[in-house]
Design goal:
heterodimer; A: 110 residues; mainly beta; 6-stranded mixed β-sheet; 5-stranded antiparallel β-sheet; 11 strands; 55% strand; B: 112 residues; 7-stranded mixed β-sheet; 4-stranded antiparallel β-sheet; 0% helix
Chain lengths: 110, 112
C-alpha cells in the first residue's frame, strides 16, 4: 500500500518568514495530493491540492509543488502570519482511499 | 456548504461497553470514512464505505465495526471498548475518489 512520510514534525518560524513542509510517497499510481490544515480544536480543512498532471499550484500565500519522478511534494507558505499556526497534513491518493502523513505542527511567532 | 456532523463531541465510556459513534453528511456523498487521530500518528483510517451497505477495512480495523444502512449515515461501533481506544475519532465524506474530503468536528472518546 501507499506510504506517506512528512517532515518536519514541528516547524517554528517568525512572522513574515516562509515555511516549507515536505512529503514523500511510495505508490507511483497516486495522482492526487491534497493538503489539510487543522487549527487547534477544529476539523481538518482542505487548503490546496494538486494533481499529477501539474507541477505547481499557487493560491495567494500558499503554493504546492509536485515532483512525480522523485515522488515528493511540498507545501510552501510565504509571509507567514500567526493565524497560519496549525497542524498541516499532506495526503496521497490513487483511487478512493487517501493515505495521510503524520502532520506538521507549524508555530508562527509574532 | 457541505456539512458533516458527528453525534457527540465528547464521550466517556467504561471498559467493555458497546459504543456507537454516528456521522451524518448532507451532500449526497458516495464515500464516507472513519479515522482515528492520535498525537504524532496523524490520521489513521479505520474503515471506509463507498456505497450503502459497502465497507472496506482501513489500516487499523481491529476492535471496530461499521454500518452504512443509508447513504448519509455512517456509524462506527466499538463492540467492547478498551482503554487503548481512547482517542479522537474523525468522520469524513467525499463525493468520489480523488476528491476533497470534508471532515466532521470529531468525537473525543475516553474509555476508563
Amino acid at each position: 500500500g501507499e506510504n506517506v512520510e512528512q517532515h518536519p514534525s514541528t516547524l517554528s518560524v517568525q512572522e513574515g518568514d516562509s515555511a516549507v513542509i515536505k512529503c514523500t510517497y511510495s505508490d507511483s499510481a497516486s495522482n492526487y495530493f491534497p493538503w489539510y490544515k487543522q487549527e487547534l480544536g477544529k476539523r481538518p480543512q482542505l487548503i490546496i491540492d494538486i494533481r499529477s498532471n501539474v507541477g505547481e499550484k499557487k493560491d495567494q500565500r500558499i503554493a504546492v509543488t509536485l515532483n512525480k519522478t522523485a515522488k515528493h511534494f511540498s507545501l510552501h507558505i510565504t509571509e507567514t502570519q500567526p493565524e497560519d499556526s496549525a497542524v498541516y497534513f499532506c495526503a496521497a491518493l490513487g483511487s478512493y482511499i487517501p493515505t495521510f502523513g503524520r502532520g506538521t505542527s507549524l508555530i508562527v511567532h509574532p | 456548504d457541505v456539512k458533516v456532523t458527528q453525534s457527540s463531541r465528547y464521550l466517556v465510556k467504561r471498559t467493555g461497553e458497546k459504543v456507537f459513534l454516528e456521522c451524518v453528511q448532507d451532500m449526497d456523498h458516495e464515500n464516507m470514512f472513519w479515522y482515528r487521530q492520535d498525537p504524532g500518528l496523524g490520521l489513521r483510517l479505520i474503515y471506509f464505505s463507498y456505497d450503502v451497505k459497502m465497507k472496506e477495512k482501513g489500516d487499523i480495523p481491529e476492535g471496530y465495526s461499521v454500518s452504512r444502512e443509508k447513504k448519509e449515515r455512517f456509524s462506527l461501533i466499538l463492540e467492547s471498548a478498551s482503554t487503548n481506544q481512547t482517542s479522537m475519532y474523525l468522520c469524513a465524506s467525499s463525493l468520489g475518489g480523488g476528491l476533497e474530503q470534508y471532515f466532521g468536528p470529531g468525537t473525543r472518546l475516553t474509555v476508563t
